[in-house]
Amino acid sequence: MNYRVLGKSGLVVSELCLGTMTFGGATSESDSIEMIDRFLERGGNFIDTANVYVSGKSEEIVGKAIRNRRSDVVLATKVRMATGSGVNQRGLSRKHIMDGVEESLKRLQTDYIDLYQVHVVDHLTPIEETLRTLDDLVASGKVRYIGCSNFLAYQIMKSLGISDHNRYVRFISVQPQYSLVSREMDREVLPLCLEENVGVIPWAPLGGGFLTGRYERGVEPSEGRLTAKAGESRWELRSTEKNFAILDAVKDIAKEADKTPAQVALNWLIHKPGITAPIFGASTLAQYEDNIGAAGWKLSESQWERLDQVSALPSEYPYRFIEKFRREL
Q1: Of 65, 181, 274, 310, which shows the fewest CB atoms inside 10 Å?
Q2: Which of 150, 140, 87 is nearest to 118 (CA)?
Q3: Binning pLDDT at 50, 70 and 90, where does residue 216 land?
Q4: Domains of the chain by range and CATH?
Q5: Any residues with CB less than 8 A from the CB of 155 and at least 6 apart, and which?
Q6: Which residue among 53, 116, 168, 178 is the active-site one?
Q7: CB 257 within 8 A of CB 3
Q8: Cis peptide before 318 (omega within 30 of 0)
Q9: Helices (H) and strands (E) in the chain, counts
Q10: Rounded to an integer, what distance in angstroms lies between the CA atom of residue 266 and that of residue 261?
């Protein structure tokens, strides 16, 4: 396992982050704890959860698994989504964040959270209120670093500017959807993060399972995440001709490298400039073993370039216009 510094900080994390969204739901508690044990034994130290995953059960399981080795783990969780039916049990208000952090600390059986992330932007609450609250949590010692998730580029930059102006702690990371079949972040978010030294920890690095190689053209799945009728990983969004062309390249390279498609797709992402640590999840121990096999090696330069080119976004304005003049200088 290799390690990277997370954003503009001194926090060192493993090149893969273990996601726990299924823990306590699709993944049993015993298998969840076994995955964490195996991950830490392999050298992983970065674990991501959220207060709403399986109604808080994920946090409880993570807390139980790491309570005797807390200092070995960089623990990340999130706040923003509804945790009840009350009007103040959602969002990024000072009240909901303060209530949320206390509840998470109890479930996680710890007195601090390494990386506390706002799950998605809240258009009701002024971002100044949110950032001031997060700064207070860092000052209190209950939180050590802060990050955001599912923010637009201008929202990230606005937040960084407000934090710098007011001398608040700033976001050291962003958690967006990013994979070979979802590269929209290339337009604005990833260049911003490179410029401002914000760590990127992508979710859905396998496109909701599409890049595992289990799916075929014209054959709609009857089970799994891609059967969902809503959300980012539903079949109608994934089953495009371009995505299948990407998958074809992944499968070809997997044969060349004697790896699985999932390992190839994750390895491409691990070595993408600007990416700190993809967040991989697994419902079963077999899936976990497949995914963890993406760490500790590197695709050849030609293999990496082939995947980068086949998955690239189309050339569009203003990027092609700006690039033309950049090359002339």
Answers
A1: 310
A2: 150
A3: confident
A4: 3-210+259-299 (3.20.20.100)
A5: 121, 127, 148
A6: 53
A7: no
A8: yes
A9: 12, 10
A10: 9
Note if 168 is an active site residue: no
Burial 108-132 (b: 16+ CB within 10 A, else e): bebebbbbbbbbebbeebebeebbb
Amino acid identity of residue 242, one-letter, is K
Chain mean pLDDT for the chain: 95
Residues 46 and 276: their CA atoms lie apart, in Å, by 11
pLDDT at 199 over 90: yes
Tell the burial category of 104 from Cβ atoms under 10 Å away from its Cβ (0-12, 13-18, 19+): buried
Residue 282 sits at φ, ψ, to 5 deg, of -155, 135
Helical residues (DSSP H) of the chain, grouped into ranges: 29-41, 57-66, 94-108, 127-140, 153-166, 189-196, 235-238, 241-257, 261-270, 285-292, 301-311, 319-328
pLDDT score of 293: 97
Please tell me the predicted confidence (pLDDT) of residue 237: 82
Question: Could you read off the pLDDT of 123-178 as tens digits, one per residue?
Answer: 999 999 999 999 999 999 999 999 999 999 999 999 999 999 999 999 999 999 99
